[in-house]
Amino acid sequence: MVSSLLGSVIAVISNILTIIFSFTSLFGGTIQLSTENPIKLVDPDNCNMAFVAFSDTHLRDTAFQPHLFANGLADIDNAETPFDALLIAGDVSEMGDAPSYEVTWEAIDNSEIGKKAVMLATGNHDIRLAYESQTKLLMDKTSEYLGIEIDKPYYSYEVKGYKFIVMGSDTWKFEKAGISQEQLDFIDSELEDADGKPAFVVCHQPLENTHGLPEVWKNGGLGPDSEAVKEVLMKHKNVFYLNGHLHDGVYEKSLEIFDAENGVYSINLPAYGKENDYGKYLQNGLGVYVELYDDSVVFTARDFARGVNLEGYTYTFDIK
Questions:
Q1: Alpha carbon distance 26, 18 (integer Å)
Q2: pLDDT tens, 233-275?
Q3: pLDDT tens by residue, 18-59
Q4: Distance between CA 299 and CA 286 in Å, rounded?
């Protein structure tokens, strides 16, 4: 009953926001993608794998957001070296409903990156109106994109030998995530299988007390299971925890170093579909692209909607 009431309230609020977004598009004009500065990898001849990571695309069937998303996909396709994968770390849609996802799938299916590995994580907006059916909707499409069977809100997938471990809430939550012991054991086992090779653990929510929490958002963290997740990460080497949810933009708090000696880090992904609240870069359309080499991992922040890198935000991590 409470869940149903909350869902109705959220739906009303979301409809109001959709109207606002539509007026923004109508009277503010559409964002133009520049093709003058295509993505260039640091060393394309020696790059083992490269992928793009977005979060909080918040897609819905409005005039504004699908255009913004299409810009980003076009920018990816315009790169001088083709990417191997696209990752969206939750809040793929605003409401988790079929019409919103139809817009999403159409854009991805019409892109070149959509023919590669497309990995999707559930965020709170994707699942909080009808947890079971909405989780299944997103995981079924992810199964289709990856050619594997996913029957839980979490899964693992390898791209050119590099492991992605995508997390998802095992229970209904309004903003946070509930991570079961079964999922914790799965993450641990998959990281053990990575055997020290760079691995990416993806969860929509950030770990508690990271990336400006709780100051930037009092209740914006993963929740009570956060410490258990961090303990699993800290058992391994060369682990990158990627989250969204905060709409923090890109600034000095985008990076958290958990263990420099063993190479355990957290990277906060900015919101793509909505403007960000904190940081040096606040516009929408932001994400990162990641390059993997024999001895390093390189993260570069970019405004994919407009086609430019964000100056001063390239991180290079040595492999331990």
A1: 12
A2: 999 999 999 999 999 999 999 999 999 999 999 999 999 999 9
A3: 444 444 433 345 788 988 999 999 999 999 999 999 999 999
A4: 13
Tokens read off for 13:
């609020």
Q: Which two tokens stand for residue 105?
A: 């799938």
What amino acid occupies position 153? P
Which domain range does residue 192 map to? 2-318
Residue 270 DSSP SS3: coil
How many residues are given for the chain? 320
Helices (H), the chain: 2-28, 65-77, 98-109, 124-127, 131-146, 181-194, 226-233
Q: Are 232 and 261 in contact (CB under 8 A)?
A: no
pLDDT tens-digit profile of 92-143? Answer: 999 998 888 999 999 999 999 999 999 999 999 999 899 999 999 999 999 9
- Closest by CA position to 207, among listed 260, 246, 181, 238: 246
Please give the Cα distance from 225 to 231 (Å, whole number). 10
Number of domains in the chain: 1
Contact assessment for residue 124 and residue 6, using Cβ atoms and an 8 Å cutoff: no
CATH of the domain at 97: 3.60.21.10
- In three-state secondary structure terms, 115 is helix
